[in-house]
């Protein structure tokens, strides 16, 4: 029997974000007869690892540091209840211990691996451990133009990136950024789209969650989904836009927001301030967001920046019309420059409100975008994406 290729995927923490979900889908789709997959997480965050129950069959799941005492302040940081003194203790005392433990364990594990994949960009500091190995970086977010234009920062970033044998980006826009700011790395950079199981998403779209709220069972609603983190997702602009839509009183839709994060309270307060709190539902994390997505009148995405926003592709798979901010990167690429969905300027609540109303009030227009989106989905089919993956991981 031919020996299987061993791949180690590493992330620092295993939470419930889009990056983790994309990795879970990729690991699920990898041919286990050809590859032996190791999913390695630096820190054990206990009950915060709510996706652990959904781990794919046939992979090895490993925490590098399992000690509660070494991880306790990492857990408290994620919960947002760490004190100033605890932060100091964590950074001065525990962090060096954790990093040394991670380095030693990675050194031992790397000896047995054919590929080491830095899935979240946290292995750069340990690059010396992976000499003479296929050390691959997955880049999920666009490069910071400000940082890359600064000569000192650019030089520092280049030094880190040169340690990787291959750099995988998830959109053509991101690839062009790397070519622009780091031309010497051009031969290392490859684009592999995220992998999607269309059939599985459609099946989940028909599976009603046990906790689905009966009060909105037959109510029309607009849907948004993502981590409630205003440094990136900009739900504030969406709430302001929705307030304009409600003042115009031309549509009956509510606004449903799926996701959790540090800014939930401030967003709920803003909804109250705007006078729309009784028309907005913050649903928190949902194991199956696709049931909600399939039943929405419109999917809205208001981010300031992305890499390749998976929720847009998932909404397309479920046949939903889309309004999205034209943020870097991936949004315009997914929506074919505005042919498969409406594009709006970042932070423009008036423009966002106008496009939301236009889509809701013009079913023929909405349907034309959905039809065009079906053409675009071909590039994200599982078989096509996995053939690109296997071309890199030979």
Could you describe the 3D structure shown?
The chain is α/β, with parallel strands linked by helices and 394 residues long. The protein has 2 domains: 5-197 and 381-392, Rossmann fold, CATH 3.40.50.2000; 198-379, Glycogen Phosphorylase B (Rossmann fold). The protein is 42% helix and 16% strand. It is built from 15 helices and 13 strands. The chain has a 7-stranded parallel sheet with strand order 3-2-1-4-5-6-7, sandwiched between helices. A 6-stranded parallel sheet has the order 10-9-8-11-12-13, sandwiched between helices. Helix 12 links the parallel strand 12 and strand 13. The chain is globular. The model has no long low-confidence stretch (mean pLDDT 93).
Tags for this model:
394 residues, alpha/beta, Rossmann fold, 7-stranded parallel sheet, 6-stranded parallel sheet, 15 helices, 13 strands
Write a brief caption for the model:
The chain has 394 residues and is an alpha/beta fold. It has 15 helices and 13 strands.
Neighbour order of strands in the largest sheet? 3-2-1-4-5-6-7
Q: In CATH terms, what is the architecture of the largest domain?
A: 3-Layer(aba) Sandwich
CATH class of the largest domain: Alpha Beta
Helix content: 40-55%
Distance between the termini: 17 Å
CATH topology of the largest domain: Rossmann fold
Element-by-element helix/strand order: EHEEHHEEHHEHEHEHEHEHEHEHEHHH
Main sheet: strands, sense, barrel: 7 strands, parallel
Q: What is the structural class?
A: alpha/beta
Strand content: 15-25%
Dominant shape: globular
Output the CATH homologous superfamily of the largest domain.
Answer: Glycogen Phosphorylase B
Number of domains: 2
From the alpha carbons, calculate the radius of gyration and give it in angstroms.
Answer: 22 Å
Our count of helices gives: 15
Low-pLDDT segments, ≥5 res: none
Please tally the β strands and state the result: 13
Overall mean pLDDT: 93
């Amino acid at each position: 029997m031919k020996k299987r290729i061993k791949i180690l995927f590493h992330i620092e923490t295993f939470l419930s974000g889009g990056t983790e979900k994309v990795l879970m889908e990729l690991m699920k789709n990898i041919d286990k007869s050809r590859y032996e997959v190791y999913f390695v997480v630096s820190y054990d965050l206990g009950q915060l690892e709510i996706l652990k129950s959904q781990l794919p069959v046939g992979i090895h799941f490993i925490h590098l540091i399992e000690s509660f005492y070494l991880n306790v302040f990492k857990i408290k940081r994620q919960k947002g209840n760490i004190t100033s003194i605890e932060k100091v203790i964590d950074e001065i005392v525990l962090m060096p211990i954790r990093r040394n433990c991670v380095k030693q364990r990675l050194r031992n594990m790397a000896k047995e691996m054919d590929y080491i994949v830095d899935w979240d960009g946290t292995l750069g500091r340990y690059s010396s451990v992976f000499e003479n190995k296929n050390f691959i970086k997955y880049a999920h977010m666009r490069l910071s133009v400000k940082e890359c234009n600064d000569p000192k920062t650019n030089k520092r970033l280049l030094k880190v990136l040169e340690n990787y044998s291959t750099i995988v980006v998830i959109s053509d826009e991101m690839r062009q950024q790397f070519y622009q700011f780091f031309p010497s790395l051009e031969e290392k950079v490859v684009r592999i789209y995220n992998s999607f199981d269309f059939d599985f998403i459609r099946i989940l779209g028909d599976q009603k969650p046990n906790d689905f709220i009966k009060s909105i069972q037959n109510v029309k609603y607009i849907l948004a989904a993502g981590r409630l983190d205003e440094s990136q997702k900009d739900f504030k602009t969406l709430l302001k836009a929705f307030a304009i839509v409600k003042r115009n009183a031309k549509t009956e839709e509510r606004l449903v927001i799926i996701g959790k994060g540090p800014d939930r309270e401030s967003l709920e307060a803003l909804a109250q301030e705007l006078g729309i709190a009784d028309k907005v539902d913050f649903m928190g994390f949902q194991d199956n967001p696709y049931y909600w997505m399939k039943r929405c009148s419109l999917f809205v995405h208001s981010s300031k920046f992305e890499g390749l926003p998976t929720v847009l592709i998932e909404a397309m798979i479920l046949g939903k019309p889309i309004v999205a901010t034209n943020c870097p990167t991936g949004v315009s690429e997914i929506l074919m420059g505005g042919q498969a969905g409406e594009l709006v300027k970042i932070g423009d609540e008036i423009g966002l409100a106008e496009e939301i109303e236009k889509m809701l009030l013009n079913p023929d227009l909405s349907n034309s975008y959905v039809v065009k989106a079906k053409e675009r989905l071909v590039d994200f089919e599982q078989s096509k994406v996995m053939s690109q993956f296997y071309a890199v991981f030979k």
